[in-house]
Design a protein that fits this description.
about 120 residues, alpha+beta, Alpha-Beta Plaits, 3 helices
Length: about 120
């Protein structure tokens, strides 16, 4: 079952703090098939968690963390882009981290058949 939840934050600093806590929850908890992202969309910091449905305990923990911001739904094409990114990175191992300076833009929208 596909799972996605997101929250928007007033400041990048607050989003970063919550993102780090989400990372810790994913890393230290029971094994889960989830990915976390700290992104800026429409000039607003967001923390996004997506993947497979988490356990009830982990879902409760993630919900509490993301309640520090304003729960939101991202556009379908943005979620699809993050899901593609997740699939690309999954082949590298169970725990993969990639940190980028603000300004890295991922192409949003459908992938052309010859691109993978």
């Amino acid at each position: 079952m596909a799972f996605a939840m997101a929250a928007r934050f007033r400041t990048p600093k607050r989003a970063q703090a919550i993102y780090r806590q989400v990372e810790q929850a994913l890393y230290q908890g029971n094994p889960s098939d989830l990915s976390a992202y700290n992104i800026v969309f429409d000039s607003v910091p967001h923390v996004v968690v997506l993947g497979e449905q988490p356990s009830i305990l982990l879902l409760e923990q993630l919900t509490r963390l993301l309640e520090a911001g304003q729960p939101t739904e991202l556009p379908t094409d943005v979620v699809a882009t993050l899901r593609r990114r997740r699939e690309q990175e999954r082949g590298k191992g169970r725990w993969v981290e990639g940190h980028y300076r603000p300004g890295l833009r991922l192409p949003v929208g459908p992938t052309k058949p010859d691109q993978g």
